[in-house]
């Protein structure tokens, strides 16, 4: 996707001052192609080629310690006939959907507050930077710090017990779906806040005044003016969150104590055990799934038009 | 590849002599005290890159190497899977691989490691029988699984298959090994634990753990299933597909019933699970017990009536090592077996491949406690100074011969490994 948009943008720019270029003896088309060449090459070598390699390797065979070229469907056959694959993909999608829904509500609310309730630009910037502070530490540390907090004898449980809310420590706080999703939300909400905040800041304030003047209630303004205009931001944020969650493996491993699986873990287990072809086949299926999800998301909003 | 050329021209006997005359002269002279070497000058510039599992990749060892031998040893610690992966796929990224014997079985056929000339290993004769003939004492029976001696030798340099008997070419020089069992928190369990079956006892629902390293985990599972009487294995170290399916079915059911709190993959994870009380019974490694104890938390490496699951590690040389670096590597190996490291590791609860030499680096009390299974006559401390046992306590499981003598199986790579790995993946995902 980005490949296309970028090249088009470049071509559009170069065709305007075309006359100056002609003195070099190059036509607009040639200049256009030349200018888009570096990006094309980068994308070709670092995006297209690796993906092609993965697709090729997914048909190879593997022994204990090596992989050998072949054209066989064993990897896919094993993958697509195993009931575990389906439950794992389902689990991955479950994580993605729940995390997406929570980060969307949180992200939208935070962005709304920043964009419309905070009056001065200075404070907007200060508060926005405040949101990014957690990103100053590594995301693994942010994730692992939940473990002592949520543990059986952790801070959360001891606090609840001493307050008399519960008698027995809550087991599901840690090493469960709950802790996995909690970590995801913690890690990825900012990816939702930033693009939504960005689009909200570009909404012409007079539109909101016009809505108010025409007698719209706050809620009507929100649903009829603000949400439609923030759609591109919401969509970009959604793509970030969905792809990050679907591709993740380390959060699931740590926060579920290796008890839950998503596709990323399936792949990482295969790689750890030197089963590269099998890992590649899983990666191809995951890639296709993610592309389909993004395809569906893009049906709702034409990002290229909106930007 | 200098070994190859030597081998072509001369008989084994003259290799022995030749080795003794050249590199051996340096190695041979006073190996224990400081290694005066003929290339003492330029060896200081040598850097050897070693990687392995956390258990023996210790910075203290690297420091001591610098002190005693003069060259630099760079250590990288990884988990078992990452170690296997690196040894198999990135032969140029290391000089010395500190791996386990079952990893060797997987990795050796890639040709990324070179065999070692036994005649250059000074303490070879003193290495315990487990690594040579497979027998601890002449009467012992060989346990199931990938026993170290089965992958310890190759018929000739460059061979990718293993030899059935001792030869002059060793794949790994054995460094440390141990007999593993379950670790428990006696304070939270409050009753004696005697059998592997306790791992799946519903009493410990949500408080058990097993390690997520397939080659090792499957053996723990097999010990449990066999102890429960659910499955009779032909050979636990080389299961059939049917046996694998049955084993996984029992554990998958337990997992779905919420028996396990978590699975662990690295040493630290196992320590944290145990120390925090998240888990009260789990597969564990000896120094992890030591680490929990040194925090003042009671933890026992519980001997079980069905016996131990054992493992052994050794160091192998990258195929790209040659010349001065190769000489340095041999010198390092000889130093490794000369006692200081052995003493250090034995004070953590491991065993040295050459116990005799380690004895000189341990106090009588330490030797008695760790090796002979005697009552400690004084406080026992870890190499880093934490108190591990009071006077009067004895080691869990007793003496070296008691523990290593009741090994039921070795960590293994099976013929059906690929199938097992896929099933393992399903178990984790289930």
CATH topology of the largest domain in chain B: D-Maltodextrin-Binding Protein, domain 2
Strand content of chain B: 15-25%
CATH architecture of the largest domain in chain B: 3-Layer(aba) Sandwich
* Helix content percent band of chain B: 25-40%
Task: Give short descriptive properties of this protein.
heterodimer, A: 307 residues, mainly alpha, MetI-like fold, 76% helix, disordered N terminus, B: 430 residues, D-Maltodextrin-Binding Protein, domain 2, 3 domains, eight-stranded mixed β-sheet, 18 helices, globular
Kindly summarize this structure in a few lines:
Chain A contains 16 helices and 2 strands. Chain A has helices spanning 2-15, 18-22, 28-57, 74-81, 83-117, 121-132, 139-144, 146-150, 155-162, 177-201, 205-213, 218-247, 250-255, 263-272, 276-300, 303-306; strands at 61-62, 67-68.
Overview of the structural elements:
The complex is a heterodimer of chains A (307) and B (430). With 307 residues, chain A is mainly α. Chain A has one domain: MetI-like (MetI-like fold, Orthogonal Bundle). Chain A is 76% helix and 1% strand. Chain A has 16 helices and two strands. Chain A has helices spanning 2-15, 18-22, 28-57, 74-81, 83-117, 121-132, 139-144, 146-150, 155-162, 177-201, 205-213, 218-247, 250-255, 263-272, 276-300, 303-306; strands at residues 61-62, 67-68. In chain A, strand 1 (61-62) and strand 2 (67-68) form a beta hairpin. The longest helix of chain A has 35 residues, at 83-117. Chain A starts with a helix and ends with a helix. Chain B is α/β, with parallel strands linked by helices and 430 residues long. Helices cover 37% and strands 17% of the residues of chain B. Chain B has 18 helices and 17 strands. Chain B has helices spanning 2-9, 12-21, 23-28, 40-43, 59-69, 80-89, 101-107, 186-189, 214-228, 241-256, 267-275, 286-293, 323-336, 340-346, 355-359, 364-370, 400-405, 417-429; strands spanning 47-53, 72-78, 96-100, 113-114, 116-117, 169-170, 173-180, 182-184, 208-211, 260-264, 281-283, 300-302, 308-318, 351-352, 380-381, 387-389, 407-410. In chain B, strands 1, 2, 3, 4, 7, 13, 14 and 17 form an eight-stranded mixed β-sheet that branches. In chain B, helix 6 (80-89) runs parallel beside helix 7 and helix 10 (241-256) runs parallel beside helix 18 (417-429). Chain B is globular, with a radius of gyration of 22 Å. The relative contact order of chain B is 0.16. Chains A and B meet through helix 5 and helix 14 of A and helix 6, strand 10 and helix 18 of B.
């Amino acid at each position: 996707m980005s490949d296309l948009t970028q090249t088009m943008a470049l071509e559009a720019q170069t065709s305007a001052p075309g006359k100056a270029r002609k003195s070099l003896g190059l036509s607009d088309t040639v200049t256009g192609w030349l200018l888009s060449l570096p990006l094309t090459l980068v994308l070709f070598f670092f995006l297209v080629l690796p993906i092609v390699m993965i697709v090729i390797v997914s048909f190879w065979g593997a022994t204990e310690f090596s992989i050998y070229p072949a054209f066989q469907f064993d990897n896919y056959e094993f993958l697509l006939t195993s009931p575990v694959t389906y439950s794992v993909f389902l689990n991955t999608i479950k994580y993605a959907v729940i995390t997406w829904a929570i980060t969307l509500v949180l992200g939208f609310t935070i962005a709304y507050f920043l964009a419309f309730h905070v009056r001065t630009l200075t404070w907007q910037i200060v508060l926005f930077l405040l949101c990014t502070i957690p990103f100053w530490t590594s995301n693994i540390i942010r994730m692992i710090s939940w473990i002592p907090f949520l543990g059986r004898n952790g801070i959360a449980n001891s606090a609840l017990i001493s307050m008399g809310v519960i008698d027995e420590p809550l087991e599901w706080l840690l090493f469960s779906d709950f802790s996995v999703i909690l970590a995801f939300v913690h890690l990825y909400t900012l990816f939702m806040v930033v693009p939504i905040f960005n689009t909200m800041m570009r909404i012409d304030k007079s539109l909101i005044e016009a809505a108010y003047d025409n007698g719209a209630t706050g809620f009507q303004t929100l649903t009829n003016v603000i949400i439609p205009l923030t759609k591109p931001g919401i969509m970009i944020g959604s793509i970030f969150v969905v792809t990050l969650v679907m591709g993740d493996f380390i959060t699931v491993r740590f926060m579920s104590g290796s008890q839950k699986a998503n596709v990323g873990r399936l792949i990482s287990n295969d790689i750890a055990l030197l089963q590269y072809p099998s890992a590649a086949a899983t990666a191809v299926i995951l890639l296709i799934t993610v592309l389909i999800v993004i395809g569906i998301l893009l049906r709702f909003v034409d990002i290229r038009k909106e930007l | 590849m200098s070994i190859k050329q030597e081998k072509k021209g001369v008989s084994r006997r003259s290799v022995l002599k030749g080795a003794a005359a050249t590199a051996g002269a340096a190695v041979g002279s006073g190996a224990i005290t400081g290694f005066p070497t003929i290339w003492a000058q330029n060896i200081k510039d040598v850097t050897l890159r070693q990687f392995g599992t956390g258990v023996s990749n210790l910075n203290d060892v690297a420091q001591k190497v610098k002190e005693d031998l003069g060259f630099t040893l760079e250590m990288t610690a990884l988990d078992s899977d990452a170690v296997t992966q690196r040894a198999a796929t990135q032969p140029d990224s290391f000089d010395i691989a500190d791996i386990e014997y079952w990893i060797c079985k997987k990795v050796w056929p890639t040709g990324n490691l070179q065999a070692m000339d036994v005649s250059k290993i000074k303490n070879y004769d003193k290495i315990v029988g487990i690594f040579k003939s497979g027998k601890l004492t002449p009467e012992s029976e060989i346990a199931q699984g990938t026993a170290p001696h089965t992958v310890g030798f190759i018929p000739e340099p460059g061979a990718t298959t293993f030899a059935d008997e001792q030869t002059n070419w060793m794949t790994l020089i054995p460094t440390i090994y141990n007999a593993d069992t379950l670790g428990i928190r006696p304070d939270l369990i409050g009753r004696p634990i005697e059998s592997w079956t306790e791992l799946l006892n519903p009493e410990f629902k949500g408080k058990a753990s097993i390690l997520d390293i397939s080659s090792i985990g499957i053996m723990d599972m097999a010990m449990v299933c066999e102890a429960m009487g659910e499955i009779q294995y032909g050979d636990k170290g080389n299961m059939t597909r049917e046996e694998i399916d049955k084993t996984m079915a029992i554990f998958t059911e337990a997992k779905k019933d919420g028996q396990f709190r978590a699975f662990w993959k690295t040493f630290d994870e196992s320590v944290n699970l145990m120390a925090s009380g998240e888990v009260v019974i789990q597969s564990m490694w000896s120094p992890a017990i030591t680490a929990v104890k040194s925090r003042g938390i009671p933890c026992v490496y519980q001997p079980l009536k069905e016996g131990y699951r054992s493992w052994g590690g050794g160091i192998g040389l990258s195929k790209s090592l040659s010349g001065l670096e190769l000489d340095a590597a041999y010198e390092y190996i000889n130093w490794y077996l000369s006692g200081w490291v052995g003493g250090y590791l034995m004070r953590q609860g491991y065993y040295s491949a050459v116990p005799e030499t380690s004895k000189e680096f341990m106090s009588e009390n330490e030797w008695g406690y760790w090796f002979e299974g005697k009552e400690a006559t004084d406080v026992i401390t870890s190499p880093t100074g934490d108190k591990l046992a009071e006077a009067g306590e004895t080691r869990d499981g007793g003496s070296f011969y008691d523990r290593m003598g009741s090994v039921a199986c070795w960590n293994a790579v099976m013929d059906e490994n690929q199938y097992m790995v896929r099933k393992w993946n399903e178990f984790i995902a289930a």
